[in-house]
């Protein structure tokens, strides 16, 4: 939750400094009041007037020549959260050692607010033992590090070290701020497509990318929930999301059932295999042996297991359908969920791997609410709004 919150953005001298403008814009769009502070080197890469125009206040670029007498302590006290993006290797080293000889490091040292740091540099600099040790030290201070990504770097190089996407950084800032509507709420989310081994190299799987479940996890964390994401897909890096990686439906059932015992809300967005090979061959099936015959058996019903718990969390199921809604309505009734999200994976822009989704909400009484095609992140936000309404009706607060 960034609306109405005060964020200090520290910018240091790397090529990615231009992206600080995008980050400032995202923070402002989400309702935060943003003030900026820059190192001398940062001003070589982005003009202070750009940040001033976006945030409405002039960046602090000189400790001894600023509007305030003591700009670092003023900003440090003003901040609800502080984010350094991009953070150079030099700045990481300074922060890890408590130095305060530039406007950014002095402000970080002068705050008790939560600190998010998004490093960006060449791969060699990021992987240097000095940087690795500095990052570990910063984590031990409780700072949240938004790891860099793989991509284009300065000078035409490609590799690990590119600044994380500004939206990811803004999410991390929202995540370290306490006080959203789901504060204190324990949320379990499943995501991704399970893989059921056939032999040591092959599996039965599905096309689920995990994007929808990840978006739901980020949205819950942004609202202050403590989220556990049990995923068979790629995880996410968020201070309020604990990722539990799993592979098979059985692994997912074991983890989800355990976590559901103490969860307030469970959103089951994973695409779980219904059947698995009875035997996973310990080796590799050979072409020369001819087409194999593979016997299948049912996997544990992850959603059904949680529906049968008493007491159980508020339960949201997902149904990937390939046409009419009748099956989803029947599933909502049969499974005993509080809300079912049905999506037609054959519809344009919808389903596996896409950035958008067109879903229909199905309630236990069989009523349906078709939502228009929208980004998965927006589906996730609206889903949490709908869950909040239904839980309120049930007498739960968030
Ligand atoms: C063209 C150019 C690009 C640079 N990009 C980076 C970078 O992406 N990350 C980094 O850690 N240092 C980078 N540097 C080196 C820093 O600018 C240098 O270490 C500087 O002292 C950092 O100062 P600061 O941390 O006070 O902003 C770059 C230098 C140049 C000349």
Q: How would you describe this protein?
A:
The protein is of the alpha/beta class. The chain has 2 domains: 6-176, 3-Layer(aba) Sandwich (Rossmann fold); 186-394, Rossmann fold, CATH 3.40.50.10300. It contains 14 helices and 21 strands. The strands form 6 sheets. It has an 8-stranded mixed β-sheet with strand order 12-11-8-13-16-17-19-20, with helices on both faces. It has a 5-stranded parallel β-sheet with strand order 2-1-3-4-5, with helices on both faces. It has a two-stranded antiparallel sheet with strand order 6-7. A hairpin with a 5-residue loop joins strand 9 and strand 10. Helix 10 (211-222) packs across helix 14. The protein is globular. The two termini are 14 Å apart. The mean pLDDT is 92. The structure holds flavin mononucleotide. Flavin mononucleotide (FMN) binds at residues 12-16, 39, 41-42, 88-91, 102, 120-121, 125, 154.
């Amino acid at each position: 939750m960034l609306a109405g919150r005060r964020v200090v953005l520290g910018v240091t001298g790397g090529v990615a400094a231009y992206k600080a403008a995008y980050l400032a814009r995202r923070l402002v769009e989400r309702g935060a009041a943003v003030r900026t502070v820059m190192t001398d080197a940062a001003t070589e890469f982005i003009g202070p007037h750009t940040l001033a125009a976006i945030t409405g206040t002039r960046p602090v670029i000189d400790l001894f020549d600023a509007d305030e007498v003591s700009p670092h302590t003023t900003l440090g006290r003003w901040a609800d959260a502080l984010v350094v993006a991009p953070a150079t290797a030099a700045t990481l080293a300074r922060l890890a050692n408590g130095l305060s000889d530039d406007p950014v490091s002095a402000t970080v040292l002068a705050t008790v607010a939560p600190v998010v740091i998004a490093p960006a540099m060449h791969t060699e600099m990021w992987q240097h033992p000095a940087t690795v040790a500095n990052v570990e030290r910063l984590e031990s201070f409780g700072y949240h590090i938004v790891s860099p990504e793989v991509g284009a770097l300065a000078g035409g190089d490609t590799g690990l070290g590119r600044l994380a996407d500004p939206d990811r950084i803004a999410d991390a800032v929202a995540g370290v701020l306490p006080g959203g509507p789901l504060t204190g709420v324990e949320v379990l989310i499943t995501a991704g497509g399970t893989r059921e081994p056939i032999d040591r190299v092959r599996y039965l799987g599905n096309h689920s990318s995990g994007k929808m479940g990840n978006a739901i996890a980020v949205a819950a964390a942004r609202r202050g929930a403590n989220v556990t994401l049990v995923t068979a897909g790629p995880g996410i890096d968020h201070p309020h999301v604990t990722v539990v990686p799993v592979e098979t439906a059985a692994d997912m059932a074991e983890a989800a059932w355990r976590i559901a015992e103490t969860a307030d809300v469970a959103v089951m967005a994973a695409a779980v295999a219904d059947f698995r090979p009875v035997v996973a061959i310990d080796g590799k099936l050979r072409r020369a042996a001819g087409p194999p015959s593979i016997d299948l058996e049912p996997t544990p019903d992850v959603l059904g297991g949680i529906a049968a718990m008493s007491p159980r969390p508020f339960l949201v199921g997902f149904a990937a359908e390939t046409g009419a809604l009748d099956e989803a309505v029947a599933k909502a009734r049969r499974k005993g969920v509080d809300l079912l999200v049905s999506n037609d994976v054959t519809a344009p822009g919808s389903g596996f791997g896409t950035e958008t989704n067109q879903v229909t909400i199905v309630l236990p009484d069989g009523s349906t609410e078709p939502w228009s095609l929208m980004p998965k992140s927006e589906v996730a936000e609206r889903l949490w709004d709908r869950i909040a309404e239904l839980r309120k009706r049930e007498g739960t607060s968030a």
